[in-house]
Every structure is written in C-alpha cells, then in structure tokens.
Amino acid sequence: NPVAPPDLSKCHIATQGAPSGEDKCCPPYSMAEIIDYDFPRTPLRVRRPAHEVKEDTDYMNKYREAVKKMKELKSDHPWNFYQQALVHCAYCNGAYDQVGYPGVALQVHYSWLFLPWHRYYLHFFERILGKLIDDDTFTLPYWNFDVKEGMTMPEIFTSDENSPLYNKNSRNKDHYHPKLLDYRYGYKAGSGSNASSDDELVQLNMSYMRSTFKNSMQLPELFMGDPLRAGEPDSSGKGSGGLEGIHNGIHQFVGPTTNPHTDMGNFATAARDCMFYSLHANVDRLWHLYRNFRGNRVEFNEPDWLDASFVFYDEHERVVRVKVKDCLTPTKLRYTYEEVPIPWMGSIK
Ligand code: C2O
Fold it and tell me: Which residue ranges does the record assign to the Tyrosinase copper-binding domain (predicted)?
C-alpha cells in the first residue's frame, strides 16, 4: 500500500536524530479539516539561477521582502518561516507515526518519496512567499550548483548579514564564496574529492553528476531512491538515490563541522536557512532533467508510489492533501525552470 499522510492530531516529539531542544516540530494546525488540493491555474512561474538573480534588483527586493514578511508573522502562524521549517523536521525526524503502524516513523528521506515530497514542500513555500507580497509570478531561485559559476554558496545568502536571506545561526563560513563546492564533501573522515586544483574539482563534480545520471537512466531507484511502502520503516534496508546522496554532501558543506551541525548540516534544522530552498530547487530541477532524458516515462509505474500522499498548508491557509502522481510535471504546479546550459550532460542517453 502507498504511504499515507499522518494523523496530524498525533504528532509527538521527534524521535529520529533531532538534537536536543530541536525535537518539537509539530505544526499548529492539528485539528484542521483536510481537503484535496485544488491545483492552481495561475501564470507559469519561471525559477532562475541564484547566481544570476543577484543582479536583478527588483527581484531581489521582492525576495527579501517576502522572506522578511514570512519571518515576521506570528510565531504560531502556519506560514511563519520557522513553522515552515518545522514541517521539514516533522517529516524528517520522526514526529509522526505512519497511520496504522504505531512506532513506525513517517520518513520522507532515503526512499522514492524524497523527490516528490520536497517538490511539494517547495511548491507551497514558494506560493506562500508570493502571496505575502501579492505576486503570483514569484519564484525561489535555484542554486545552479551543476555549472561552474554556481558551484559556490550563492552570494545572495552570504554577502549581507543583515539581509532577511541571511542565516545567523551557524554555517561553515570557511565555505563561503569563492570556496568551491565538493559533491563528495562530508563530515566523515575520508570524504571529499581530493582535487588538486579548482579546475579539477569542477571536472570531478561534473563527471560525478554525469555518472549519477547515466548509471541510473534505466533504473530509477538508483536515482530517486528505493521503494518505500506503507508500514515499512526507512531503516528496512532501503537506500537513498544518487541525487539525494549528492544533496547530502551539499547540506554538510553548508553546515558547520561541529556536532550537531545545525542548521544546514542537520535535517531537523536545515530548513531554517534560506539556502535550503535553493539547494532543493536545483535538486528538483535535476529530477526534472532526469525525467526529460527518459522521455518523461514514469519512474515507478505502481500505485504504491503514484498514490502515496502528503498534506501541506497551502497559500489559502487550508490543509491540503496531494498525491505523488500529481506532481510529476512541474507545469501542473504552474512552475518551470529557466533553461541554462548543462555542461556535464555529454551523451547521457
Ligand atoms: Cu529534506 Cu535537503 O532534505
């Protein structure tokens, strides 16, 4: 059976790896009525690369304004920036049990749920930001970390400590621009690409991206993550897909090296950093590219994936239910990605 949304009224302390003091992730809308999501019919929104929007003053003013407003909402408002971040904690650190399976945490990482869940999470977050500034074309920028120009932390998040986009909690400042990102970075000893120059690191990153795509072209679980069905704990031998693996390295690259690596290096707190959403926008874009390379063939043609469902708080302040099968085409969610060169692609197919 497909994984079902949690019973919101049974949210509890997060039991999976949240650092102490960060384990209360329950959203404030536990008794709300849940309705099926009415998919938007608004203009198509175009997400652009973070290293390019920095020159667009109008856009940057809007983005800062939207995040500022979101951070200033009442702390228990479901749209509040930190409430939104707690949603990630709840689904990542075991604040819910799966309905009908007491003691089995609902977990949206390490499996085929990873990409669809985060696609919806960004969708609602982006639309709430747009709503706060009354702009139905607003988009999050994507951290275009698969091209050389985007292979550093985007400066829109690091250059101004007083910007609403800045995160004053801990980050690894030694990794700020112009330090190059390493897809194999990790806190574990022995991680890293050991490149001898920046040029070499760019090449290593790009060939890692290319092989991640190429090796998984016929076998989506290698890219997306293994199947996870209702009642299965994420620890039952399931594995993350290759894209999630690269994404984990980037989380760690941004977070501080000291335990518990909050904010970005720890899932319970990662979404408190605006950089999180741009990292995930590019992860989402890479999934979109993967589908295109496969001729938009469905990755897993089975109800256990297609009918898996989640709930989110939407831009009309309603709690809505969504299914994996309805997010496979970004245009259905009324957004797309500005097309940019894909230098690592070569001959993937
Ligand atoms: Cu839900 Cu980047 O992780």
Answer: 109-126
Tell me: the pLDDT tens digits for 329-343?
A: 999 999 999 999 999
3 lies in some domain = no
Return the structure tokens found at 136: 């139905």
- Which ligand 1 atom sits nearest the alpha carbon of residue 276? 2
Asked if residues 104 and 53 have their Cβ atoms less than 8 Å apart, the reply is no
The verdict on whether 175 is a catalytic residue reads no
Q: Is residue 2 part of a domain?
A: no
Q: Is residue 72 part of a domain?
A: yes
Residues lining ligand 1, Cβ inside 6 A: 88, 92, 109, 118, 247, 251, 267, 270, 280
The CATH number of the domain where 15 resides is what?
A: 1.10.1280.10
Residue 349 domain-assigned? Answer: no
Lowest-pLDDT choice from 28-37, 250-259, 328-337: 28-37
Please state the atom number of ligand 1 nearest to the C-alpha of residue 121: 1
Beta bridge partners of 309: 323
Tell me 42's DSSP state. Answer: S
Atom 3 of ligand 1, nearest CA residue: 267
**Three-state DSSP string of 275-298:** HHHHHHHHHHHHHHHHHHHCCCCC
Identify the CA nearest to 118 among candidates 294, 346, 333: 333
3 state DSSP class of 309:
strand
In whole angstroms, give the CA distance from residue 73 to residue 317.
13
Residue at token pair 């589908």: 291
Ramachandran bin of 225, using left for φ above 0, alpha for ψ from -120 to 50, beta for the remaining angles: left
- 86 CA to middle of ligand 1, Å? 12
Give the mean model confidence (pLDDT) for residues 1-21.
92
Catalytic choice (223, 253, 267, 312): 267
Provide the pLDDT for residue 126: 98
Q: Which residue range is the domain that position 184 belongs to?
A: 8-337
ipTM over 0.95: yes
